[in-house]
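explain this:
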Amino acid sequence: MNLCSIASGSSGNCIYVGTEHTSVLIDAGISGKKVTEGLKSIDRKPEDLDAILITHEHSDHIKGLGVLARKYGLPIYCSSGTKDAMLSAHMLGNVDESLFHEVLPDEQFRIQDLDVLPFRVSHDAAEPVAYRLSHEEKSVAVATDLGYYDDYVIDHLQHLDAVLVESNHDINMLQVGRYPYYLKQRILGLKGHLSNDNAGRLLGSILHDDMKAVLLGHLSLENNYEDLALMTVSAEITMGDNPFKGTDFPIQVAGRDHPSGMIAV
């Protein structure tokens, strides 16, 4: 399996996952042009995609979805709530509804030779999900836009070969920053976003000897920066109740506006 973050951040998210025979995107929150350029950088093309999996309806996850779906006739997989939210607000323009395939949390489905398991996350969207994807004995997951995590989320992230997990903000930067109070409360709330500290704690609960790669994603432009996210996450892993240190694993930050490079597992 291959995993590549084409873009990940508060301004747009688009993640590639593929096998030798199957290629999908998780979210298309950047322009269709940028998706095409990102795919080209990893020797892929939009017309090669088998599907786009959507986590939820916020614009930083669906900005390019309508264009890509119309131009290439790509199947769209998402929850019923996400579909209804996108269509009722006319977020996608004129998209053929036959392209939509509704998914249910904890009900696995297959796209070609790729097994996909959606699972629930807490976020202020209609019916958000994260995705775990498996091929033969390999598994990766993309889990962002988490207001919090619990045993249910941890269970769905066990025994992965690679993971992209949200590390959205530094709590202190957010608290003293220029965001209005209501927005700070939203981000810090149970339907908001995962902080660097909590990203490290979550990783401490799912890391194992065979984890090959960790990507930190969905960093806030205003309330985080790469070195701080890496330092905080690493420290939380090292200090946590687990047998690992933060330096035991290859941890990198997914770029806001450039591909991470292909990760093979």
